[in-house]
Amino acid sequence: MPRAKIKLGDEIEDVTAKLRGIVIGRVEYLDGSKAWLIQPESPEQRTLLPRIEVQDAYAKKVGKGVYPDPKPPVGFYAGEDA
What we know:
By secondary structure, the chain is an all-beta fold. The protein has no helices and five strands. It has strands at residues 11-14, 19-28, 34-39, 52-55, 59-63. The termini are far apart. The mean pLDDT is 88.
């Protein structure tokens, strides 16, 4: 069975440590290895726990997660033609 593709905002689990969280970033190293940065849920909902790096090979998509609505760009871009 093919593995579900992971994207920013998905809820994933580290299958070795059994930690779950929302994907907040993707890391790709010079050696070609990939990892996901996840933000675990805080038990008391008052403080943020430190983010955790999960190697792609050990990451498993377990939930839909959080997907905010995209916002229009603000300001200007250097080099943009008027």
